């Protein structure tokens, strides 16, 4: 589902964020990406949905050759890759249902398809009764569930999550993790960058550790491995 071959990322300011990274993530995997701040985790994640382009190397996600995508192909690729951010990135003037529907409206899905898919993902994330509320009327955990619903509404093959529990308390963090596990159980590949030691150590999934732009550990049932 995801493959990186000798990937390097150097920014214009001279910072080398990734150095010779190679990794394969099969379909249906759940992978944590861990490491110290500034290690290259966010760059690793951004490359997967073409927010950044590699300086060298090859990246394949869901059958797409990321570095060779034309600008016109990027929206097509992103229908297959759902993205969840730490700060939710919801449209504040839209309701819960409208935020989720927006991802389908931009690809000109039919009204019937939009109604059906929005209802399905609202049920999945447990927010059917919040569909007409605005983001500011929700808790942080509820806003993140809306963001996950929006990421899922196109039925992506992959969901990449960059610190999705970073702004949440422990109870809401566990709720978001359990939701992502349910999504994974349905066959969606999950790649989650996180600093949450407790979640990583408790769940014993594959752990890819990045330090100084390189993969330092890749363990099938790993732990967080850092004290800070």
> Whole-Å distance between the termini?
32 Å
Structural class comes to alpha/beta
Helix count equals: 7
Main sheet record:
6 strands, mixed
Q: Which percent band covers the strand fraction?
A: 25-35%
Along the chain, the helix and strand elements come as: EEEHEEHEHHHEHEHEE
> What is the average per-residue confidence, as pLDDT, rounded to a whole number?
93
- By CATH, the architecture of the largest domain is named 3-Layer(aba) Sandwich
CATH topology of the largest domain: Rossmann fold
Fraction of residues in helix:
25-40%
CATH superfamily of the largest domain: P-loop containing nucleotide triphosphate hydrolases
Can you give a write-up of this model?
- This protein has 228 residues and is α/β, with parallel strands linked by helices.
- The chain folds into 2 domains: 1-80 and 156-228, P-loop containing nucleotide triphosphate hydrolases (Rossmann fold); 90-155, no CATH class.
- The chain is built from 7 helices and 10 strands.
- A 6-stranded mixed β-sheet has the order 6-7-8-3-9-10, sandwiched between helices. The chain has a 4-stranded antiparallel β-sheet with strand order 2-1-4-5, covered by helices on one side.
- β9 (206-211) and β10 form a beta hairpin.
- α3 crosses α4, α4 packs across α5 (140-152) and α5 packs parallel to α6 (170-185).
- The chain is globular and about 45 Å long.
- The protein starts with a strand and ends in a 9-residue tail after the last strand.
- The model has no long low-confidence stretch (mean pLDDT 93).
């Amino acid at each position: 589902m995801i493959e990186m071959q000798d990937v390097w990322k150097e920014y214009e300011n001279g910072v080398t964020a990734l150095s010779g990274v190679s990794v394969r993530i099969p379909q249906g995997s759940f992978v944590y990406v861990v490491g110290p701040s500034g290690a290259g985790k966010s760059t690793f994640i951004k490359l997967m949905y073409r927010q950044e382009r590699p300086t060298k190397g090859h990246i394949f996600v869901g059958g797409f050759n990321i570095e060779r995508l034309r600008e016109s192909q990027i929206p097509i690729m992103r229908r297959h890759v759902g993205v969840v951010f730490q700060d939710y990135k919801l449209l504040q003037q839209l309701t819960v249902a409208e935020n989720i529907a927006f991802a389908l409206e931009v690809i000109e899905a039919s009204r019937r398809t939009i109604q059906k898919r929005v209802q399905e993902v609202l049920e999945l994330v447990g927010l059917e009764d919040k569909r007409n509320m605005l983001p500011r009327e929700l808790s942080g955990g509820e806003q993140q569930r809306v963001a996950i619903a929006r990421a899922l509404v196109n039925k992506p093959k992959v969901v990449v999550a960059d610190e999705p529990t970073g702004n949440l308390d422990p109870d809401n963090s566990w709720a978001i993790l359990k939701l992502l596990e349910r999504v994974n159980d349905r066959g969606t590949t999950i790649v989650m960058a996180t600093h949450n030691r407790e979640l990583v150590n408790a769940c014993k999934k594959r752990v890819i550790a990045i330090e100084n732009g390189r993969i330092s550990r890749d363990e099938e049932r790993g732990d967080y491995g850092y004290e800070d």
